[in-house]
Design a protein that fits this description.
about 180 residues, alpha+beta, Aminopeptidase, 10-stranded mixed β-sheet, 10 strands
């Protein structure tokens, strides 16, 4: 079963459990910044009975592209408990998050790990082929290391996937 809630409506203990699930699922490679990025939007929780087995969230970010500031639903902290993977929980989480994106944002965006590329592309997410940058406090700064790892889900605006894309600044990983 999947439930969705805005961060403001999530019980503190459930947030703690979701954070612990992410820590475990990412084998300790999940920072405080990563968790902070997942807050302030809509969370999707995957349940088996009373057991939390998966989490993901979508938060609003501004992406600059084609001379416009686009309202993007940015997917964060998608994780499934290791012993519950390959049972459809990740797909169910993404279905819930993609529904939010389609109904509330100009586009969806996410930064995909190498292990998840096939999963996202099978769902219709497309690789951003153009250069990526961040609007940092010092101005626009290229993020070459993120080129080839940004995926989008077009929703309401035309996108030139070979054009420039710029994300808003945040601490930690900007994409």
């Amino acid at each position: 079963m999947i439930t969705t809630l805005h961060t403001s409506d999530v019980d503190v203990d459930l947030l703690k459990a979701a954070r612990a699930l992410c820590d475990d699922a990412f084998d300790g490679d999940f920072s405080d910044h990563d968790w902070e990025h997942a807050l302030g939007g809509v969370h999707a929780f995957a349940w088996e009975g009373d057991d939390l087995v998966g989490h993901g969230s979508v938060v609003q970010r501004r992406l600059l592209h084609g001379g416009r500031a686009l309202r993007a639903g940015y997917v964060e902290a998608v994780a499934v408990r290791q012993d519950r993977r390959r049972q459809g929980h990740g797909a169910a989480l993404m279905t819930a998050l993609e529904r939010v994106i389609r109904h509330a944002y100009d586009l969806g965006a996410l930064s995909a790990s190498e292990d998840a590329l096939d999963f996202y592309t099978a769902r219709g997410w497309v690789l951003w082929r153009g250069p990526s940058s961040v609007l940092a406090p010092s101005g626009v700064v290229r993020t070459e290391d993120d080129d080839g790892g940004v995926y989008v889900m077009p929703v309401a605006v035309p996108l030139d996937l070979d054009g420039d894309i710029v994300c808003d600044w945040r601490e930690g990983d900007v994409w």
